[in-house]
Amino acid sequence: MIQRIQTIYLFLASLAIYALFLFPVVNIFSAFGAKKIMVSGVYELINNQLVQTESFTLLTIATAILGAIPIVLIFLFKNRKRQATLVYLNVFLVIGFSFWLAQTIKGAAGKTLEISDYSIGAGLTSVAILFLVLAGKGILRDDKLVKSADRLR
């Protein structure tokens, strides 16, 4: 059966994860200057230039892989049971990724007295989880529809 709404949900989940490359997770303002923490690293404002001072290579690779998984899951539409299982497994991976991201940001921010401002990137993993759960429900609804049509034959 042709996938309908769950394909869009999986695509939007992938976009939400890849949007972490565009939007900062935390902006930090201190007496020494401003910092912008993204999944690719820490960027500081030095001499009115935004310079990357710390790199998060593993976090960047994990974000790229985590964003590709929903796109791959779109093409598993012939085996809906496996697709639904992998979607819910991906939800747990995104939850683990969110925890890892939070711990990385906590370590990069330091323990000094600074004013931090959470940006759009802080909520993008939650949006991705929402889209993945909606896609899983759509896949299970499709599976139920196919089974009911098979009973009628």
Topology at a glance:
Blueprint: H1 5-18, E1 26-30, E2 33-38, E3 41-46, E4 49-55, H2 57-74, H3 80-109, E5 115-118, H4 124-152
Antiparallel strand pairs: 1-2, 1-5, 2-3, 3-4
Helix pairs in contact: 1-2, 1-4, 2-3, 3-4
- What general outline do the C-alpha atoms trace? elongated
User: So how many helices?
Assistant: 4
Task: Report how far apart the termini are.
Answer: 16 Å
Report mean pLDDT, rounded to a whole number: 87
Helix content: 55-70%
Summarize the structure.
This protein is of the alpha+beta class.
Structure description:
The protein has a domain at 5-23 and 58-113 and 120-148. The chain has helices at 5-18, 57-74, 80-109, 124-152; strands spanning 26-30, 33-38, 41-46, 49-55, 115-118. Helix 1 (5-18) runs antiparallel to helix 2, helix 2 packs antiparallel against helix 3 (80-109) and helix 3 (80-109) packs antiparallel against helix 4. It has 4 helices and 5 strands, in the order αββββααβα. Strand 2 and strand 3 form a beta hairpin. Strands 4-3-2-1-5 form a 5-stranded antiparallel β-sheet, covered by helices on one side. Helices cover 59% and strands 18% of the residues. The longest helix has 30 residues, at 80-109. With 153 residues, it is of the alpha+beta class.
